[in-house]
Design brief:
The structure is a single chain. The chain has one domain. It has four helices and no strands. The relative contact order is 0.21.
Length: 102
Amino acid sequence: MDRVLLGLICGVAFGLISVALMLPMQFADKRAALLGAFLNRFAIGFVLGCVRLDWPGWLVGPLFGLLLSLPDAIITKAYVPVSVFGALGGLVIGLVVQRWGV
């Protein structure tokens, strides 16, 4: 499958998972929080579908997942959960894109 399309699909799935996990939480502006989380996780999938490095997917995925999650982690001061979830999602997406992306 095309890498960019696969990245888009993975990004949407990762974004929806992230939103689903956040639904029971309370926020001052819940709509903005959910939209921001979705877009951040979607961006991880999209970027991993677009990037072409000679590094293995298990390294590229967590690296970009962590880098793209750091701004949200800093803003929310939820460093560990936001960063770890971004890196783990990046790992999975990086492996998927490396294995099935063309």
